[in-house]
Amino acid sequence: MPLTFDDLLDRAGRLARGGRRAVLGIAGAPGSGKTTLAEHLVRALNGDGAPWVARVPMDGFHLADAELDRLGRRGRKGAPDTFDAAGYAALLRRLREADGDAETVYAPGFERVLEQPLAGAVPVPPAARLVVTEGNYLLLTEGAWARVGPLLDEVWFCALDERERVRRLVARHEEYGKSHQDAVDWALGSDQRNADLVAAGRDRADLVVPESALPRVAGPG
Ligand SMILES: Nc1ncnc2c1ncn2[C@@H]1O[C@H](COP(=O)(O)OP(=O)(O)O)[C@@H](O)[C@H]1O
Ligand SMILES: [Mg+2]
Q: DSSP secondary-structure letter at 83?
């Protein structure tokens, strides 16, 4: 039997039964469906009850454009060295250590229209027993990214047929305002270099999520 979305719900739910707050990572190339999968997992696990699962996006740790300009890296926004990897690892550590504390931990979000990080956008309440964090570089072993893996209870890797992934990525860029040509150039240029870096981490994942287990949603295009 191919793996289903319900199997993923069971597996994620089991992670949270260890008595302490668990952190599940979802990695994958740009456009592979990480954010969509994480959103569906969190929604399905929380159901109508009090939220006990929170989603924390790695994208919240994008450096701001002003800092990318200062560093001369704006042209490759989205590459591993255009994020605050050490800050992301520190937040994951804090989320684990704050288990049992009474205060909400705030994570930054990413604003897709402005394409800028936004502090304080993502609350993780004390009641969160499971944190689902998702992004491109969870399985990288270079520099500060190497601190991320050991802070995750499991890492799942979104694997999608390459042509379909690129098609969705182009459609998403267009949805957020790029012309068709700019969307294609970005998806096959900058995004593709990053996708290749991400693919190299696939073998370190605990689970490769097959297409059969991805949520059924009406995608772009
Ligand atoms: N399971 C799916 N079925 C159809 N379309 C999807 C699915 N998952 C994601 N998409 C679409 O593909 C695009 C990229 O998905 P997203 O979750 O943003 O990927 P990532 O976070 O990995 O970059 C989005 O526009 C989304 O609507
Ligand atoms: Mg995403």
A: B
